[in-house]
Design a protein that fits this description.
Helix content is 33%, strand content 17%.
């Protein structure tokens, strides 16, 4: 999943057969020092250990919903996932046991402490981590986060393998993630890798290196699992009166699309309503490398759109929502850096603000205007925009081309923007699997 530099397909309850059976483990690695000045989110839990006024401040914060950039603050997130197969993840080994694969330097939570869960997504473009605790039913609060653009898939479309520089960048980011996990008493975690590691000839070799140097064991998930996790992570953005949704996740190396029919009896698990899905082997990084991302003329942009459209025409299940498309109750739902960037430009934000972007509705005219605006900007102008920046300036128009192809196949008057995705889907499934929203966790200390 290709997303912002901020900060969920996988089967849900009863669909264990589609989930990989790899275990999640954290191996010790040599001690190293990493700067956290820009990578850490504040840990509000420290207030519990402060005397007097500090304790009162913590009590006043309790229950307050906070939405902020993943790498600068906390967030309360609605989670609609249901339990994943027990084979999909395993409890993080208890640090106190000091057994092989444990995170050393952590203590097991007390009986009144809320359990901590973690989700890591290593994609073609980004490395992202969320650490969260459950809140009231169906929600969780992010207590730590990390996101960094690593461009792991840089050059992959032409060489077929991950480059040394790209792997070095990813390993350094993963070391920061490992440090964060070691500082938490993580009850359960799922650490995934997507298209870059799936398709690279040296993907498995790279993950062996990650385990040796960062102490993290990642699992490569398949495309269906990725699509379903995206649905699980965005479920709360689908309103009760919705009849049909095309949910898409424009990634760095692939783009997942799920067709969701809600005309029948509605289950609490949105993924149960997927009637068709596909994963296109094209994303913003691979498309920009093939057509060029710095200088994009109208003709180049149209060529990118046509390339994606041909791939969509080969998707045999694309007509499963034809009875709902372009009618009341139908809309598109996009989770990716492309749609969040368009939303930020649309809102004319001086600095990207997740609180204003996540859940935003954009109509057709607004989307058309924003794509036209970006096409009219040169590379330097895109770099200068605070919602794009240097890291995304050469990728955003490739993402817009994929979006245009999707809009052509499934026309809709409205597009809803999601600044959430795989990690949120993972967390919701893990928490539901542990039963944390049931009676036994009520009254636990956050």
């Amino acid at each position: 999943m290709e997303g912002r530099n901020t900060g969920a397909g996988a089967p849900e309850a009863g669909v264990a057969g589609d989930l990989p059976a790899s275990r999640v483990s954290f191996a010790p690695r040599p001690a190293a020092t990493f700067s956290r000045q820009h990578d850490s989110a504040p840990d509000r839990g420290d207030a519990a250990h402060q005397p007097g006024k500090g304790k009162k401040r913590r009590k006043r914060r309790r229950g307050r919903k906070v939405f902020a950039r993943d790498d600068h603050g906390l967030a309360t997130v609605r989670a609609d996932g249901e339990p994943a197969s027990a084979a999909a993840t395993a409890p993080v080994p208890a640090p106190a046991a000091r057994r092989e694969g444990a995170i050393h330097g952590s203590s097991r939570p007390t009986g009144r402490d809320l359990p901590v869960f973690a989700a890591l997504d290593l994609g073609t473009n980004n490395c992202r981590l969320l650490v969260a605790i459950p809140q009231r039913h169906g929600q969780f609060r992010v207590i730590d986060a990390f996101s960094r653009i690593v461009r792991l898939g840089e050059g992959l479309s032409s060489s077929g393998s991950l480059s040394q520089q790209a792997m070095d960048r990813a390993v350094e980011a993963l070391k920061v993630c490992a440090d964060k996990l070691r500082n938490r008493s993580v009850r359960r975690a799922r650490l995934i890798a997507t298209e870059a590691c799936r398709s690279a000839s040296n993907g498995a070799e790279f993950l062996d290196r990650v385990e040796r140097e960062a102490g993290l064991k990642l699992e490569i998930i398949d495309r269906q699992t990725e699509a379903r996790l995206a649905v699980s992570g965005c479920g709360s953005l689908v309103e009760r009166n919705t009849r049909g949704v095309v949910l898409f996740d424009i990634g760095g190396g692939s783009s997942e699309i799920a067709l969701i029919d809600l005309t029948g009896h509605r289950s609490s698990r949105l993924a149960n309503h997927i009637v068709s899905w596909t994963s296109l082997p094209v994303g913003v990084v691979s498309l920009a490398e093939r057509f060029g991302g710095r200088t994009v003329t109208e003709s180049v942009f149209r060529a990118m759109v046509d390339d994606v459209r041909v791939r969509l025409d080969d998707f045999k299940g694309r007509t499963k929502l034809d009875h709902l498309v372009a009618r009341p109750g139908f809309h598109l739902l996009g989770t990716s850096g492309t749609v969040t960037t368009l939303a930020g430009v649309h809102l004319e934000l001086e600095r990207y603000d997740r609180r204003r972007v996540d859940g935003l509705w954009m109509d057709n005219d607004s989307v058309d205007r924003m794509i036209g605006k970006l096409l009219g900007w040169n590379f330097d102008q895109r770099v200068a925009n605070p919602c794009i920046g240097a890291d995304r300036a050469d990728l955003v128009l490739a993402g817009c081309a994929i979006l245009e192809a999707i809009r052509a196949v499934w026309p809709s008057e409205r597009l809803r923007v999601a600044d959430r995705g795989l990690r949120e889907g993972i967390l919701s499934e893990l928490m539901a699997q542990e039963g944390v929203w049931q009676e036994r966790w009520r009254g636990a200390r956050p």
